[in-house]
Design a protein that fits this description.
With about 525 residues, the protein is α/β, with parallel strands linked by helices. Helix content is about 40%, strand content about 15%. The strands form 4 sheets. A 7-stranded mixed beta sheet has the order 6-12-11-10-9-7-8, with helices on both faces. It has a 3-stranded antiparallel beta sheet with strand order 1-2-3, covered by helices on one side.
Length: about 525
């Protein structure tokens, strides 16, 4: 069930309007800038937490090895016995005593569709030794961790009915690569529809989202090219760039001035190794940064790419379907012609409830990628069931099914995201990211709070994702909430109550004093703040 809109747009002033109180709140392009950079006391305390945990792990290992004469595992196998170590002792120590202690927070198996509520399989055992056993019970929890932004990952409705019918007719796999016998009419239909949806000449679809970046980028850039990548770009982009052989330079996150400085130096000095000018320069950014919840400052990057005659590559894994009045991504959000961006990349695993990814660009470039990309040449072609799921959900988003369900889902996602973000800020949590972004991280900082927050939320039937080093800065550990159109306001309020309880227990409401100065003050959303 979709929640009723409580926030709307004022198109004349580009404001978000609280419909209950009829007054504007933050502009959609205005970034909420909390003082989240850790101060010196927080930095020292966080590092002490890590050091103390490592010391406890070292003591634990010393007791096991030297007093109990216990073999840890094959990582520590004696080479004299004829077995080589798989990894170094330091890597094995980190896996066992650092990550191992936090492994209870990760890999929790679910046995339901990733909707607004999910069933989590309960398990027990020692996290340090990764020795979990299932109890045979399940726990029904509110899902704030999945990327099911528009709620299409469901086992009822018109989408799944079309998928079932397609699988009956065409089976589940082509058992072939695209270049041999894997190019189907459904795949051609999907690529044409995605290109039209994004306003591009052509598109290529790859059956894996990660592989879309990691295997297609090496076909676009090479050793004579320069790629300037945002500091917080996704791992798939990083691996794709490393495989390409291109010169890679990194600019500070969302910092257009630093990017311009790198562009100027590249033009003045050229390739440092060959002393020749670069054949081309490519700027790579993301539509929504998945660990920050920030929306790309696209107008600034377009201005720079035009000024210095560079190319612009935008990864829209989290923004396609989730941003813009029509769900067409970051270009739609900023009101920019998609042709201003040279290459648009995205995935079908978030807003479309399926699998795979796409690259949309000029017809000439797409034809070149089809002939040279590793995934296009060697990977098994797209599953017919996955294609049908994408086509069905895309038809709903575009309103081609004859209903306004797509419009309602887009509106519900935007409203839910802004409502949930506003409530967390009001309650004093340090919230990252921009309004309209369905990715809402809050900072935890300390590793001990990192573990406690995940466990306590699960006990209160709230499913959350916690993220730490190396996915984030070692001093900026966080939890990341992903809001969906399938959530209701009642669901989000239940989550807020539980998160507030856990936040008070773990002392996470770092900005509480800024918002709770009046004992009975009510928020703009009409909810009384708790002391």
């Amino acid at each position: 069930m979709l929640s009723e809109p409580i926030i709307d747009y004022d198109n004349n002033n580009n404001n978000l309007i609280d419909k209950k109180f009829e007054k504007p709140i933050l502009k959609p392009f205005q970034k909420h800038k909390p003082e989240y950079a850790a101060g010196i006391i927080v930095r020292i305390a966080t590092l002490i937490n890590f050091i103390f945990g490592i010391m406890i792990g070292a003591l634990h290992q010393y007791i096991l090895v030297y007093f109990q004469k216990r073999e840890i595992n094959i990582f520590y196998a004696d080479p004299a016995k004829g077995y080589a170590r798989i990894v170094s002792p330091s890597e094995a120590f980190f896996h066992r005593h650092v990550f191992g202690r936090a492994s209870e927070c990760f890999g929790r198996p679910i046995c339901s569709t990733p909707g607004a509520w999910i069933d989590v399989m309960e398990r027990e055992g020692c996290a340090t030794w990764n020795n979990f056993t299932f109890t045979g019970k399940t726990r029904r929890v509110l899902n704030l961790g999945s990327y099911n932004y528009l709620g299409f990952a469901e086992n009822t409705g018109s989408c799944i009915e079309q998928v079932i019918q397609t699988v009956k007719e065409q089976l589940n796999s082509t058992c072939s690569t695209r270049l041999t016998a894997g190019c189907t009419p459904l795949l051609i239909q999907l690529e044409n529809k995605i290109a039209k949806f994004l306003g591009k000449e052509d598109a290529i679809c790859i059956p894996m989202g990660f592989a879309t970046n990691s295997t297609c980028i090496p076909s676009i850039v090479g050793p004579e090219d320069l790629v300037i990548s945002d500091q917080l770009n996704h791992s798939s982009l990083v691996w794709g760039l490393r495989s390409s052989g291109a010169t890679i330079k990194v600019f500070n996150h969302q910092d257009a001035k630093h990017l311009e400085q790198i562009l100027q130096e590249a033009i003045m000095f050229g390739n440092v190794r060959t002393r020749k000018p670069y054949k081309k320069m490519v700027i790579i950014v993301e539509g929504i940064y998945s660990m920050e919840g920030e929306i790309c400052r696209l107008p600034e990057f377009i201005e720079l790419k035009k000024k210095y005659k560079a190319y612009l590559y935008v990864d829209e894994a989290h923004s396609i379907g989730a941003l813009g009045p029509q769900g067409k991504g970051v270009c739609n959000y900023w009101g920019i012609d998609p042709n201003e961006v040279d290459i648009l990349m995205g995935t079908f695993t978030k807003s479309f409830g399926s699998a795979g990814g796409y690259i949309a660009a000029s017809r000439q470039l797409i034809q070149y990628i089809r002939a040279n990309s590793f995934a296009a040449c060697y990977d098994t072609s797209f599953s017919a069931g996955c294609i049908r799921q994408i086509l069905a959900s895309l038809s709903i988003i575009l309103g081609e099914d004859g209903t306004d369900e797509g419009e309602k889902r887009l509106s519900a996602l935007r409203n839910n995201s802004n409502y949930f973000r506003t409530r967390l800020i009001e309650l004093g949590f340090v919230v990252l990211g921009d309004r309209d972004s369905p990715v809402i991280p809050i900072l935890l900082y300390y590793p001990n709070k990192f573990l406690a927050f995940s466990k306590l939320c699960l006990e209160l039937n709230i499913g959350v994702v916690v993220v730490g080093y190396p996915a984030t800065d070692i001093l900026l550990l966080r939890t990341r909430f992903c809001v969906s159109a399938s959530h209701t306001i009642a669901d989000l309020e239940e989550a807020i109550r539980s998160i507030t309880k856990v936040g008070d227990l773990c002392l996470l409401r770092y900005n509480k004093h800024k918002f709770n100065r009046n004992k009975h003050r009510k928020t703009p959303s009409g909810v009384e703040l708790e002391q």
